[in-house]
């Protein structure tokens, strides 16, 4: 007879999803192992823009994002460590008639989903954000907005996980998984096998190769998001500012630096990471930023970088059990996943602990491609997961 | 909207117009390869042969001016296109071409952003000065030895009236002698090395009599002025609030660690020129993800190159101090070798001959490198409250705390503490911060093995801070190529 697995749960991938999941499983009384190829939260979850906003969140995720926002705002209580969360006003701007149309439609849909977004005049917007230029003709205003210092995520979760008694395997690359007696055994690059009664794959853009270990094809598209930060300057703005299309995110941190993002694409892939910037995209992004907040022109660019964000076929999360593989779960593909990640991963923890989550998970059947021999067919996407009808941006 | 200058297209681009880069560019251009040579300075020469402004030429003189002028004439005669006063802020490689983004400050006519595209790229960006942190090292009045040599060469100006010169390597005597010539009083010279250390370097020095003689001349000038070098002496602290007022000096052991309990000496001064050796400037080779190796004697981390200066990345070459600190003479030879390899790789020249063993120039450079190597024992002695990262105000104690909290590599340390996240991109603190982590991490393999595990900063653009205003220029909103909106 073989010994039962050492752990109640093995989580592979230590981004915001894997860390939150491991934390709540450990707090729920499970013996948990977290396996991470590098240090914790150094991929998407440590290099993202840290914006905690409803105005860039997908409509169907608004109920989750609102709850997640509350979690971030109270991170000191449940996480126990600081990630520099600031809750502040958020504005989404329209500079042209067409953008105003998109903004009105999108803000309306998000409001229906529960986000407290109001459309406001340029004058009102300028009262909310005195740093604004005179260019906006309409703005979406949401008091539930804010940001975190994403680079602190790994440190905060690491401390919390150690305190919760989770076993951390950092700098340990998982290379495969096999079902074993009573669960799953994860192989690590140094040859060890780490076995658990439950398995959770939280690999961000690497979810696709991780699922392949179990013969499951879950296509994940790799977005290579570019970000920039300025040197410290005197205050130029006090809220989170975006644009109707979602292609700008802008906020100034307490230390005076301003982070400029919005999902402009750099060059990279799963193997090499985000390895090259596109200077013309960077300049475009910076122009858009200065069009919104003109005082930024006086700043100097200090650093730019790129990180990898996962997108499933329908750009909706993959969170739930893998079909035919009992007690094997995935958690990822969450759009604006830094904002919503903690809440969504906590829902999965509730399910794995045997409870009934407050909001539904995101079953993955819809995303699975046929096995390699039947390749060629595209994944089945149910109509329900599509964007709302009538979006003028589409 | 102002029309952006069109991209400059060439077969080869060379970044850095010091001895290595300027030589290579001249050889390439002579062979008919269209070549763009890019440098921040107004003229070729690099740091070592920096061109003095015209008004000061008459007073400049000396062998370095002659060597620099010869190099400048060679570049001008060869027909390489020189882009001077151009700060490179981004280098990318896409579709078989390098794209180099620069900000020019030079001519009144082409001020602003510029793009250069080339198939082959030689990085010859030289070295950065390393300063091992001590209490008060950020006080105004404290400057690097390398910065002091630039002041002396380009302005004939000493960094202060009462100067202390401290640290390690040949720059010590050069700065002391130069400052004396510029009329300053040199109140103390503190050399981490002892007479025995210099004696060990003597055979390699003898192989380069001209350079050794130049060094002897500097020392003679010091002695004539009554300045005696203090051997095996280090800076314990710099004192002064708004301005430097005094420097505290004390004895160090053979490994550069302060001798515990030994008496220290307080020297009143208004300037301290201090440097603890040179490190290859690897920003661009890191940005392009070439493989790097750690070699303490050649300055620390450097791009891995074959003996023809090829890096591990296709069509990317590195030569000169930026590929391992060996000094100007070795850099000249490396420039020739790099150009030969580039010509061969373009199908325009014979395969480069394998380099003969280490040349005298290289042996000389290596001996100097050993004298100015980073010393783990000196780093280990940094006090907990001493600031290591001056941009972000991170102390040694905070770095130790980050290690205790689980940070085992340099980039993780950056996330935990912001060390290296400031405008200098970790250029100043990187070596000290990495060594501090490595000292904690070091196991049986020793500190060097731990340095390899700790790694280097991930390369990031911009390579130098760039003003947003200059970067984005004037534009119409409608012309911003905004991508398609994210899904709703
Ligand atoms: C540049 C950028 C900006 C962004 N800005 C925002 C924003 O402002 N607001 C917002 O809400 N969202 C933002 N996002 C999205 C957000 O960052 C991600 O949705 C979220 O962090 C994803 O978390 P994750 O845990 O799923 O993935 P990740 O953080 O990528 O974690 C996956 C982990 O799996 C590990 N792993 C992979 N393979 C293996 C293996 N074989 N063995 C062991 N471990 C492995 C990886 O090392 C990694 O740590 C941004 C994303 C990027 C890239």
Automatic annotation (TrEMBL), chain A:
GO molecular function: oxidoreductase activity
One Pfam family, short name: DAO
Residue ranges that the Swiss-Prot or TrEMBL entry lists as coiled coil: none
Protein name as it appears in the record: Glycine/D-amino acid oxidase
Domain FAD dependent oxidoreductase: 8-351
Keywords: Oxidoreductase
Upper classification of the organism: Bacteria, Pseudomonadati, Pseudomonadota, Alphaproteobacteria, Rhodobacterales
Residue stretches spanning the membrane: none
InterPro entries documented for this protein: FAD-dep_OxRdtase (IPR006076), FAD/NAD-bd_sf (IPR036188)
Region (Disordered): 373-394
UniProtKB/TrEMBL annotation, chain B:
Region forming the signal peptide: none
Domain FAD/NAD(P)-binding: start-end pairs: 13-326
Highest classification ranks of the organism: Bacteria, Pseudomonadati, Pseudomonadota, Alphaproteobacteria, Rhodobacterales
Pfam families per record: Fer2_BFD (PF04324), Pyr_redox_2 (PF07992)
BFD-like [2Fe-2S]-binding domain boundaries: 387-438
CDD domains attached to this UniProt entry: GlpA-like_Fer2_BFD-like
GO molecular-function term, one example from the UniProt record: oxidoreductase activity
Classification via InterPro entries: BFD-like_2Fe2S-bd_dom (IPR007419), BFD-like_2Fe2S-bd_dom_sf (IPR041854), FAD/NAD-bd_sf (IPR036188), FAD/NAD-binding_dom (IPR023753), Metab_Enz_Cyan_OpOx_G3PDH (IPR051691), Opine_Oxase_asu/HCN_bsu (IPR017224)
UniProt keyword terms in alphabetical order: Oxidoreductase
Name of this protein: Thioredoxin reductase
